[in-house]
Amino acid sequence: MTQPSDMSPAAGGADVKEPALSPSAPSSTAGRALRAPSSAAESTFEAMSFAEAPQIKSEVPGPRSRELLEAQEALESNARSYPRSVPIAIEQGRGATMRDVDGNTFIDFFGGAGVLNVGHSNEAVLAAAEAQQRKLVHALDFPTQTKITLMRKLKRLLPGRLRDSAKFHFGGPTGSDAVEAALKLARAHTGRHTVIAFQGSYHGMTAGALSVTSDLSFARPVSAPVHFMPYPYCYRCPLGLERQSCGMACAHLLESSLTDPHSGIPKPAALIIEPIQGEGGTIVPPPGYLREVRRIATQQGVPMILDEIQTGFGRTGAMFACEHEGIAPDVITMSKGLGGIGFPLSCIAFDAALDSWEPGAHIGTFRGHQVGMAAGAAAIDFIEQHQLAEHAARLGELALSMLAEAAETMHAVGEVRGRGLMIGLELVEDQSSRQPARELAASLRRECCQRGLIIEIGGHHRNVARLLPPLVISRRMLLKGIDILIETLRELEAAKPDASGAARLRGKTGR
Ligand SMILES: Cc1ncc(COP(=O)(O)O)c(C=O)c1O
Fold first, then answer.
1. Is the CB of 175 under 6 A from ligand 1?
2. Residue 334 C-alpha to ligand 1 middle, in angstroms?
3. Same domain, 214 and 278
4. Which of 188, 290, 300, 381 lies at a 20 to 30 A Cα distance from 392?
């Protein structure tokens, strides 16, 4: 079994006094070296955002936001979610910033839940979308030059052998639709029904996608034939092991579950996995883990579906996150960044050998959203021309090192982890108990919003502050946002008694 190769012996021990810096995070020295002077790219990225961000002119929510929030409450279902914790009505987005209807300008570390890799209202992408809109918007699944161009561009970007063998399928517009299509394709091909998914997973809200999502609070369909395996959440190992010495037991359990005739788990139609769990709390598996899963899936003849809906299109410092591990799945799901600046579009790319569908086997009215496809093709050009994946890798290292350095003097940060511009801070009551600090996370999101920074919360216990800024964020804007985050966290920490009951009043961040 492959062992994690580059793990710091200090990381993640049971009795850590210092916050654990995930193996994916760099040392602070490396991070400091990255604080380089600005470049041409920096001025391009600066010009894409509202330069004054953050700028808070009214209370948050301001009077106009309040009005719209109340109107929304009267008209929209109780399931509405984000405005409950980030109470603003948005008027305009630019680059890595947003302005609300009261004129408050925010740094956006949420990026439309990881959609806006090329930034809000990216001009180049907008131009392509506007041009397409005047020609053709809706085309069912007829071929158009726009669709063929997008598929050719995507194919060139795919990992490994998928680059040669892939076929595409555009389903409904959202990520969940891509997951549905992937599961259905695998079932059609194998004639098998059950699926292996992973604890901590999030794959969407439609019935099939929900069936492979592990969060029990979402009322999953009870009849779903899905078996959940432990994901390597090493900070809270589901097997109770230590990452330095576990021998990647979670991968071993997956293998034995598939090979042992007494495991009680029938051979599945597919296994579906995120290369980095997003909603589950930005959980980065140890090096080698995904390669192990790939090996096991191949040996057992189980199609591997990799859900890159959140990690794709440069987010983690590579076009697709699986490139970090040098693997290619059998099916890859894409959405979020695929539609460029937020046009809803999703698709799967899969090994043509799986294409057992009969004509019309997976149809839908909105499978040919030409504007989304034109925007997607333009976004790919933009990502490549501006080397956004490399930019995300550099800024991600910088952010991780700054956060890890700050966390050394805080008791509420259990672990800083992430890859590229997909970053999480696991908040705890104190580092020795590792008790999840759910309320602190909620307060952090609320307070950051008051100061002009939008962040998200996720994780098994809703105690992970999640950062997914547009990849076009400038270094200056990123540092500003990180400073606000650290400052706010320090103040919240200082205002709260620690585990021993003594109020710890700390100075402001020295940065
Ligand atoms: C990894 C992953 N898969 C699937 C989905 C579902 O996508 P959508 O909300 O567009 O249906 C999400 C959404 O956050 C996701 O992060």
1. yes
2. 9
3. yes
4. 290
